[in-house]
Design goal:
alpha+beta; about 130 residues; 4 helices
Amino acid sequence: MGTEQNKEMVKATWTAFAKGDIKTAFGNMADNVSWLVPGNTPGVSGLKRGKDEILKFMGSIGNVFPEGLQSEITRAHASEDAVILELTNRGKVSNGKSYENEYCFVFEIENGKIRRIREYTDTQKAKEILFS
């Protein structure tokens, strides 16, 4: 696929995740996909390997945001084998607090599917809002 097709596929995948449409999102991912969240935030940080671990992770996020998360993609950059999304996630946390944080995701593409995801955000901000 070309850079524009990669960009559109990744944006569609993220939009599907945001809507809870896991089937569509997973359809664009390799079976051995991995998702890395750097940092030391309990229940969030670490390497998730495979669709089962990612599904479990997404389920835990759903518990924290019972009304869901709203994602606004602000920029998308693409190359032959990677797409970078910059976005803002917003939502009401189960503890009553409002959450808003900026994110940068790097999606690596292999054979037309998302193979690796790396997520970058202010984990300290997230920890303070989500767990205090």
